[in-house]
What does this fold into?
Amino acid sequence: MNKKAMKSKGDETANLKSQLARALADYDNLVKRIEREKESFTETASLSMVKRLILPIDMLYETQKHLNDTGLAIAISEFEMVFSDFGVEKIDPKEGEKFDENSHEVVEVVRGERDGSIAGVMLVGWRYKKGIVIRHAKVKVYKKG
It folds into this structure.
């Protein structure tokens, strides 16, 4: 084989190696993009499901206040475990805690000496992964005077 033919074969081999490297990089990028899209879809679906379950669990909490039923308490506990598995945590401030506008929403103001602290919780809130507040806790807040 002459030099010219060898150079041509060498150039062809280099070109094919370059094309292969680009194809492998494109494939790798595609796999990563599909994985990101799959995670995004899963997150969106999970959040949507959780939002739909908030009203029923609110109803269970309210019913439990009036009945104080063991079976109902177990059902609520199961709901909370499922929420936890999906990365959802309850925002349930206690009386006397400082009001936090990032987690709480004032629905009532009452007179008291502990200005700016929580007087009571009307409705628990919910926070999703990465600190996303699904719903602020609805609270009463003390105000002096």
Remarks:
- The chain has two domains: 1-87, 88-145.
- Residues 28 and 129 are 28 Å apart (CA to CA).
